Hints:
Layout: H1 21-35, H2 37-48, H3 52-61, H4 63-78, H5 83-96
Helix pairs in contact: 1-2, 1-4, 2-3
Amino acid sequence: xxxxxxxxxxxxxxxxxxxxxxxxxxxxxxxxxxxxxxxxxxxxxxxxxxxxxxxxxxxxxxxxxxxxxxxxxxxxxxxxxxxxxxxxxxxxxxxxxxxx
Length: 100
């Protein structure tokens, strides 16, 4: 919410497993806020000013942490959905494993 993104921009594709870039931004921003306040402030400015180069640098540096946080989030959702939906989401996770 601090980054000012609309919920309509915070999606992932159920067929391809693609996750919207702004979702990656939100998860990375949360990680930075918890671990490196100065970096979180710089990333915040980059998001607000559409500085894609700076944002990409942070995404590259913290990719594995962001991926792990996204996986944890999805796994949490999996606990709340029925079996058929769970299989679809697991398929998506297989498709996004280790890549953006």
